[in-house]
């Protein structure tokens, strides 16, 4: 139907190997059913067959849908735009202006890699008008096409059949084995262990092995006592989980490289990594507005730090932060070095930050007392017996957290950059001053009594708002005025204006 | 704050207090109505829903009495050739300043209640995800003039303002 339109105007299909991949996927998904039928002969009963049947049906349906998608998808790259038509029931025609393209990622699952395919995701951020738009995906094209698209798409001019030159590359960071423990010890380890255990148990029971029985028979639990049983169980689960998470981390970040590479339109920050599923993300350096370092509270002692860039057009929700992350959790020294190299300026993160006034500590301590007080009161009123003691016990913890939060606070203006730091999971943001598109001051009645104000700089990049909480009023206004020179000057006054309610 | 940062020049219309009060009244009526219906129909829950209903109505009434005049005292706005400057809020006050060179869009919004009161809101968006700057409680004629002038100034600025 759409064939005549699709021909002769540069419209291209996705690679035909997608179909072969789908065929193989379909056959593979039927394997469990075949195996169970063969293993158990004619005596196939529900509990055994159902999982295999579900896997099979899902696999077949998925493969067929994917083939239809292949049939119906066309894309083309013109001088100005990238266009993609797709959809069987719901036709869609999306086009992105090439100068609006902000990042081009390629990923590949194992099946894609075996077939020499790559999935290309193209993002164009324009959230001021239509909200964060979903990336345009080409699933899948050959590796060569993907590389070509990645090198050419953001340039605005298509080089005919010219192989992109490797160009100059500066390596900023490569995979280090010592990063593994920083990323393996997370609370997710227990969840991973639970998942692994459940998967193993399910698989075991479907082939007739009672894994729970094996574990129970491993040790004489009765002799160990309840307390030790719990300790052993937690430690064992944790160990399994840590190994699992660590292995997943190594597989994901295998061969990690962060390089600054020359693209035709300027330099890009490129990360590439992955053992089974490879991923390469190019971030246009012209869209870079700063960097962010995050130090999780529980791992502060180990200086574990995750580094990401503050850039326009890279997603901001927690689901899509991975495109902005340029370095996984690593020791602070590594993170600082990489962040300095990304900024091309070591000073912002090398300069000690100015601490915030003591009143900011008082505000946090006040909140800590209030929260644990309300908790204690609530428990005393509603819960029986000595439960309120638990509420009272939270007070030292809350006070400790208040001090930690206060110690995170800091700010500095260093050359072209504004540096702010805050939060229990300390986030240090280095933002280019020229990227600030507005200033907001916030002050609650209680902050006003303490003489404090929160300065929020708004920007088009990253999270959109970066705050320096609880500065003295005069310092806050001075900081904002120095960050965006001239913006506040007409409004700065030393005497209250007539009729001012402030 | 007043000693360090001059307040924006213009107050909002007095009618805006009526708009804020009506909004609170409507929200209280909806929430209170829902709880009230629950209180009447689900007899076993009355012990819980009774106090909840009282709290909802009390908070709504307090908000209705306290917030509008407080807001009226705080809310101010100013547009110059260089920047939009707005002060808003009540318990938590907010001063927002955006240079006109960074403004992306300018809209005028009038809800049904605002139309009845002859009010309008001008929203000014920048490229930031922090949400638009809203000039609320303007007379609708003033709002029109402000929006038109803003659009003219920002339309003359080249670049994508990020």
Could you walk me through the main structural features you see in this protein, from its secondary elements to its overall organization?
The complex is a heterodimer of chains A (502) and B (162). Chain A has 17 helices and 20 strands. Chain A is an alpha+beta fold and 502 residues long. The longest helix of chain A is centred in the middle third of the chain and has 28 residues, at 226-253. In chain B, the strands form 2 sheets. A 4-stranded antiparallel beta sheet of chain B has the order 1-2-3-4. Chain B is α+β, with helices and mostly antiparallel strands and 162 residues long. Chain B is elongated. Strand 18 of chain A pairs antiparallel with strand 4 of chain B, so a sheet runs across the interface.
List the helices and strands and how they pair.
The complex is a heterodimer of chains A (502) and B (162).
Chain A: H1 3-6, E1 12-13, H2 17-40, H3 46-72, E2 74-77, E3 81-86, E4 92-97, E5 103-108, H4 110-114, E6 117-123, H5 127-130, E7 136-142, H6 143-152, E8 169-174, H7 180-184, H8 188-206, H9 211-218, H10 221-224, H11 226-253, E9 257-263, E10 266-273, E11 278-284, E12 288-295, E13 304-311, E14 325-331, H12 332-343, H13 347-350, H14 358-382, H15 388-408, E15 410-414, E16 417-422, E17 426-432, E18 436-444, H16 445-450, E19 452-459, E20 465-472, H17 473-483
Antiparallel strand pairs in A: 1-2, 2-3, 3-4, 5-6, 5-11, 6-7, 8-9, 9-10, 10-11, 12-13, 12-17, 13-14, 15-16, 16-17, 18-19, 19-20
Chain B: E1 10-11, H1 15-41, H2 46-74, E2 76-79, E3 83-89, E4 92-99, E5 103-109, H3 112-117, E6 119-126, E7 133-139, H4 140-155
Antiparallel strand pairs in B: 1-2, 2-3, 3-4, 5-6, 6-7
Helix pairs in contact in B: 1-2
């Amino acid at each position: 139907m759409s064939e005549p339109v699709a021909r002769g105007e540069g419209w291209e299909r996705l690679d035909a190997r997608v179909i072969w991949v789908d065929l193989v996927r379909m056959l593979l998904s039927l394997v469990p059913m075949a195996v169970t039928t063969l293993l158990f002969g004619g005596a196939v009963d529900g509990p055994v067959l159902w999982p295999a049947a579900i896997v099979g049906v899902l696999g077949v349906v998925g493969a067929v849908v994917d083939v239809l998608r292949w049939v119906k998808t066309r894309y083309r790259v013109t001088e100005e735009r990238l266009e993609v038509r797709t959809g069987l029931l719901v036709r869609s025609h999306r086009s992105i202006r090439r100068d609006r393209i902000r990042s081009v990622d390629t990923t590949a699952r194992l099946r894609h890699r075996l077939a020499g395919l790559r999935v290309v995701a193209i993002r164009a951020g324009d959230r001021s008008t239509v909200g964060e738009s979903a990336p345009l995906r080409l699933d899948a094209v050959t590796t060569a096409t993907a590389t070509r698209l990645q090198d050419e798409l953001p340039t605005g001019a298509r080089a005919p059949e010219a192989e992109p030159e490797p160009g100059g590359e500066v390596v900023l960071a490569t995979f280090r084995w010592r990063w593994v423990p920083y990323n393996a010890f997370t609370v997710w380890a227990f969840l991973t262990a639970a998942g692994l255990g459940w998967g193993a148990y399910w698989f075991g029971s479907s082939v007739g092995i009672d894994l729970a029985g094996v574990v129970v028979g491993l040790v004489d639990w009765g002799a160990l006592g309840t307390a030790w049983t719990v300790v052993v169980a937690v430690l064992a689960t944790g160990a399994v989980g840590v190994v699992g998470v660590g292995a997943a981390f190594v597989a994901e970040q295998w061969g990690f490289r962060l390089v600054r590479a020359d693209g035709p339109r300027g330099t890009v920050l490129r990360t590439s990594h992955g053992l089974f599923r490879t991923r390469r993300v190019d971030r246009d350096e012209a869209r870079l507005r700063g960097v962010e370092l995050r130090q999780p509270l529980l791992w502060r002692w180990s200086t574990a730090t995750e580094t990401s860039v503050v850039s326009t057009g890279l997603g901001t929700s927690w689901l899509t932060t991975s495109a902005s992350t340029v370095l996984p959790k690593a020791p602070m020294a590594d993170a600082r070095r990489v962040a300095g190299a990304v900024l091309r300026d070591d000073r912002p993160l090398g300069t000690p930050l100015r601490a915030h006034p003591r009143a900011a500590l008082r505000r946090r301590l006040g909140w800590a007392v209030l929260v644990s007080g309300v908790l204690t009161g609530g428990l005393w009123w509603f819960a029986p017996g000595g439960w309120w003691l638990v509420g009272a016990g939270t007070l030292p913890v809350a006070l400790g957290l208040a001090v930690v939060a206060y110690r995170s606070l800091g700010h500095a203006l260093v050359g072209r950059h504004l540096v702010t730091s805050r939060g229990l999971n300390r986030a240090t943001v280095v933002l280019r001053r020229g990227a600030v598109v507005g200033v907001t001051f916030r002050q609650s009645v209680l902050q006003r009594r303490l003489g404090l104000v929160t300065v929020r700089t708004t920007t088009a990049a990253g999270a959109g708002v970066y705050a320096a909480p609880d500065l003295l009023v005069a310092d806050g206004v001075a900081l904002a005025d120095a960050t965006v020179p001239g913006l506040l000057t007409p409004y700065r006054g030393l005497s209250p204006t007539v009729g001012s309610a402030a | 704050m007043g000693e360090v940062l001059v307040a924006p020049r213009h107050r909002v219309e007095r009618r805006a207090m009526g708009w804020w009060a009506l909004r609170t009244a409507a929200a209280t009526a909806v929430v209170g109505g829902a709880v009230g219906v629950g209180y009447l129909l689900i007899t076993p829950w009355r012990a819980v829903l009774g106090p909840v209903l009282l709290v909802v109505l009390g908070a709504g009434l307090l908000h209705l009495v306290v917030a509008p005049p407080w807001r009226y005292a705080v809310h101010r706005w100013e547009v110059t050739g260089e920047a939009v400057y707005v002060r808003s809020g009540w318990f938590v006050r907010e001063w927002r300043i955006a240079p006109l060179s960074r403004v992306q869009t300018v809209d005028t919004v009038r809800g049904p209640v605002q139309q009845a009161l002859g009010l309008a809101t001008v929203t000014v968006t920048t490229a930031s995800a922090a949400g638009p700057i809203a000039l609320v409680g303007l007379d609708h004629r003033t709002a029109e003039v402000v929006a038109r002038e803003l659009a003219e100034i920002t339309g003359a600025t080249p670049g994508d303002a990020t």
